[in-house]
Amino acid sequence: MLATARTFTLDGISARPVRVEVDVHRGLPNFTIVGLPDAAVREARERVRAALVNCGFEFPLRRIVVNLAPASLRKAGPGMDLAIAAALLSASGQLEWERLAQVALVGELALDGSTRSVQGALAMTEAAREVGAEAIVLPAENGPEAALTEGIGVVAVDSLGRLPALAAGEWDPPRPEPLPLELGAPPTAPDLADLRGQPHLRHALEVAAAGGHSLLMVGPPGAGKSLAASRLPSILAPLAPAEALEVARIASACGRLESALVGGRPFRAPHHTISAAGLIGGGTPPRPGEATRAHRGVLFLDELCEFRRDALEALRAPLETGEVSIARAGGRRSLPCRFMLVAAANPCPCGRGEADPDCTCTPYDVQRYQGKLSGALADRIDILAAVRQPSPTEIGGPPGESSATVQDRVCAARERQERRLGEGRCNAEMTPAEARACSLSSEAAALLADLYARQRLSGRAHDRALRLAQTLADLAGIAEIGEEQMAQALQLRRRDNG
Ligand SMILES: [Zn+2]
Question: For the segment 110-121, what is each residue's pLDDT rounded down to a tens digit?
Answer without folding.
Answer: 999 999 999 999
